[in-house]
Write a structure and sequence with these properties.
Blueprint (H helix, E strand, L loop, with lengths): L3 H36 L20 H9 L2 H32 L5 H10 L5 H14 L6 H5 L6 H12 L3 H9 L4 H9 L4 H16 L3 H6 L8 H11 L4 H33 L3
Helix pairs in contact: 1-13, 2-13, 3-7, 3-10, 7-10, 8-9, 10-13, 12-13
């Protein structure tokens, strides 16, 4: 039987671990909690610093937010662009990942290495050439301009390739015996088996598009095409002291991400485990 002192030390260590995890979670959640509290604080009064107790909470900041900018149109724009870019990345990424995982062609390691190398190039470097290209094609200030950088994703290709590599090739051979081609094997055999990785990529792509600010700022001029990060930037410039209105806009922008993550949480964990990413 284990010694009592060893049991006590294990219990103490487990308690300290849970306390550390709880403290870390509280520190991470505090900014979001303060954002919500500030959004219902009258007049955005922050003179006393952060406070978890609100005197006379009100929703006036949300009413002022919807009266100041076309929040409905902006949210629809952001949601539509995020969904479209996510679907495009899923289709292009899964097809390219299938090709790199299953097809044999000359120079495949080199081409895949070039794809991975693009992960080291930040968007800020690509803004100028992309803007010039779209300007010459007369596509600036359009929905296509918002989608252009997100039609394909090197990270998505890498993520899905790692998942497809884990699918036994014997399934492909069995489907090929039944007369299936590459398109049918991709859609009916491989894709259903990599759903966790697809769900993880869905959340990552949606969040990236939803939070995108620099690229829409460069290519969008029409107010009716503004996305949510752009709308919040104009809001902050208009209400420099009314922080309750600014925080109300932040709450509106955070809610869709929270909902998407809660629905796909277990798939994200499973996807990261299957692909071997940390």
């Amino acid at each position: 039987m284990p010694e009592p002192s060893r049991d006590i030390s294990r219990a103490l260590g487990r308690g300290l671990l849970w306390a550390a995890v709880a403290l870390g979670a509280a520190l991470m959640l505090f900014p979001f909690l303060w954002t919500v509290i500030t959004s219902i604080t009258p007049q955005g009064n922050l003179s006393g610093g952060p406070s978890l107790i609100v005197q006379d909470p009100t929703l006036d900041a949300y009413r002022e937010l919807f009266a100041s900018i076309p929040v409905g149109r902006i949210v629809v724009n952001s949601f539509g662009v995020a969904v479209a870019s996510t679907l495009l990345q899923l289709v292009t990424g899964s097809m390219a990942a299938y090709a790199f995982s299953r097809l044999a062609f000359r120079g495949k390691p080199f081409v895949f290495g070039c794809y991975l190398a693009t992960l080291m190039i930040p968007l800020q470097v690509l803004v100028a050439p992309l803007f010039i290209m779209l300007t010459r094609m007369h596509l600036n200030d359009t929905y296509f301009a918002l989608l252009a950088p997100n039609i394909a994703s090197a990270f998505g290709i890498f993520l899905l390739k790692q998942a497809i590599d884990g699918v036994p090739k014997e399934l492909d051979e069995a489907a090929r015996i039944d007369g299936a081609g590459h398109l049918r094997i991709w859609g009916q055999v491989v894709m259903p088996l990599v759903k966790p990785a697809m769900a993880a990529l869905t959340v990552f792509a949606f969040m990236e598009s939803w939070n995108s600010f620099l690229w829409p700022l460069v290519v969008i001029r029409s107010p009716e095409l503004m996305t949510l990060p752009l709308g919040l930037s104009y809001l902050q410039g208009q209400f420099t002291t009314e922080w309750n209105v600014v925080m109300a806009g932040s709450v509106v922008s955070i809610l869709p991400i929270v909902v998407v993550y809660l629905f796909a949480q277990k798939h994200i964990i499973a996807g990261m485990a299957h692909t071997g990413l940390k």
